[in-house]
Amino acid sequence: MTAAILTNNLTKQYGTLTALGNLDLQVRQGSIFGLLGPNGAGKTTLIRILTTLMRQSSGEAFIEGNDTRSRGRDIRCLIGVVPQENSLDRYLTARENLELHARLHKMDAARYRQRIDELMELMGLAGRQHDFPDTFSGGMQRRLVVARALVHQPRVLFLDEPTTGLDPQSRRSVWEYIRSIAGSMTIFLTTHYLEEAELLCDRIAIMDHGRLIAQGTTQELKARLSGDTLYEIEFDGETERYAALLKNMACIRSITVKGAVVNVGLEHWECLSEVVSALNGAPVRRISLRERTLEEVFISLTGAGVRQ
Amino acid sequence: MKLQGALAIWRRDMLVLRRSVLSEMVAVVAYPLTIYLAFGIGMKSYIGLVEGVPYSLFIAPGLITMTAVNAAYSESVWSLWFHRRVQFTIESYRVTPVSVSEIVVAKIFSGFTHGLVKALTVALVIFAITPFRFAPEHLLGYLAFLIPGSAFFSCAGVICGTIMDKPETIGKVEAVFIMPLIFMSGLFFPLSSYPEKVIPWIRALPTTALFEGARQALVKGSFSAMFVLQIAGMALITFVAAVWIFRLKMSD
Ligand SMILES: Nc1ncnc2c1ncn2[C@@H]1O[C@H](COP(=O)(O)OP(=O)(O)O)[C@@H](O)[C@H]1O
Ligand SMILES: [Mg+2]
């Protein structure tokens, strides 16, 4: 099966700045792929090349087997695009925005009318379809852009930071709509919200400074981090004393103290029983396994937090 | 080139024009009408006949032509800038199967249509308030100027709206190039008012062919094929340039 998206050595220079450097990426058909990276990582640049808005400096990229350099028109028939900035026409009503898009895709009226009805319903905009988009909330505008990208039933949908700038509630509703449209279509989304990638995507790639630094499922990425396992131990007093005791144990790789809570990183999970015996008689209120967050994965890979 | 996509974009622009047609027309008529009343009627008795016709008749064709080219230019330049830099709608067109050429052709036709529609409105108003009547063949001759003239200015607007990213630059170009070009080419006075030495230079301006030729066609019924060819040639050149420049801009 051809990959939905394939890039080989894809590079883009802006003058001397390398916005994308030798990027190799493969996205399976029908999957939801998340590209995670801080601002300036090169996410938008990659989407612009894949959606034929911009040419790469070198390397190649294919959408369902079509070369971005020579088969632009074929690619544009296959894709739907939700750009980082809403590109709605504020002089057209919500519905007219979608109708124009349908005509640009050469759909005939009988077909697009029905399709637009469905999409308006699906995106929860049916009641507002004859209003102008600048009267919409941020979340509704975003959903309208998503609806517009879906009018012609694309095979690959690109979403560039679909929820940036939205309040948590609208963000959640956009997530729900994205999940509801996933299926046979390939979805490629970029984000700098770890939660978003984790929640929506089958596979995640992390990039920074134009380079891919990791790729895999959320589980794989988290597992890559930890040869060690993190536990949280909460004490009811004498925290310092027990922390000092734990610090001297051979199988403990790392230890941090925060108030009454001590975080310990174990060499491997078998050490846990050793720790438990060492704490015999101590006022332990709770011992719990701590899940790695994607943020920690990110920090360990890029050496810094997410630049917002 | 298939024009289905261009047609869809042009129809969008016409829908938007239709929606605001009343306020647009009031705004469009106000300016030439003010000039017409102030100069054509207010100063009529001081000026008397110019080239053998009353002054109000002398300036009427120029005011209509001015409306056409101004409207064509403004619509194109602002629309291109707005859709490119503010709304990013051009980008939303560009991720569909329509070609870049179709987009620019649509925009040129929209500006052109704005020019013709607005000029027609001003013409109707001027005809309504004056006793002058023109023979149909004079009107046809006049249209032969107005059409390529609007096309020329629409293409020029598209070029400016494609290369200029800042609205202040657009305003400056309008003040420094477009308005002088219009006013210097015999809108309010005959070319013979210029000093002998300057006349060949003024004659070389594309707007002179347009304003002079259009007036002679409408007022006197004398049709200068030379002027028409000149303005049509300019329209063709700027059309090719506009398409080329827009494509270039979109590919970087
Ligand atoms: N048109 C451009 N000209 C020059 N530099 C650019 C241009 N677009 C983006 N960049 C630079 O390329 C880098 C990647 O930008 P971008 O792809 O927008 O990142 P992201 O979408 O991940 O925030 C940034 O350093 C940005 O400043
Ligand atoms: Mg971006």
Automatic annotation (TrEMBL), chain A:
Q: Where in the cell is it found?
A: Cell membrane
Q: How does it sit in the membrane?
A: Peripheral membrane protein
InterPro entries under this entry?
A: AAA+_ATPase (IPR003593), ABC_transporter-like_ATP-bd (IPR003439), ABC_transporter-like_CS (IPR017871), DrrA (IPR005894), DrrA1/2-like_C (IPR025302), P-loop_NTPase (IPR027417)
Predominant place of localization: membrane
Write out the coiled-coil annotation as residue ranges: none
Q: Which GO terms describe its molecular function?
A: ATP binding
* Listed SMART domains: AAA
**Pfam families from the xrefs?**
ABC_tran, DrrA1-3_C
Q: Which UniProt keywords apply?
A: ATP-binding, Nucleotide-binding, Transport
Domain ABC transporter positions: 5-234
Q: Which family does it belong to?
A: Belongs to the ABC transporter superfamily. Drug exporter-1 (DrugE1) (TC 3.A.1.105) family.
- Give the protein name, as stated in the record: ATP-binding cassette domain-containing protein
Native organism is: Pelotalea chapellei
Automatic annotation (TrEMBL), chain B:
Under the heading Pfam families, the entry gives: ABC2_membrane
Q: Which InterPro entries match?
A: ABC2_TM, ABC2_TM_bact-type, ABC_2_transport, Nod_factor_ABC_transporter
Q: How does it sit in the membrane?
A: Multi-pass membrane protein
The record places domain ABC transmembrane type-2 at 23-249
Name the principal localization, coarsely classed: membrane
Record has Coiled coil as a keyword: no
Record keywords, A-Z: Cell membrane, Membrane, Transmembrane, Transmembrane helix, Transport
Q: Where in the cell is it found?
A: Cell membrane; Membrane
Output the superkingdom of the source species: Bacteria
Stretches that traverse the bilayer = 21-41, 53-73, 116-134, 140-163, 175-194, 223-246
Q: What protein family does this chain belong to?
A: Belongs to the ABC-2 integral membrane protein family.
Q: What is this protein called?
A: Transport permease protein
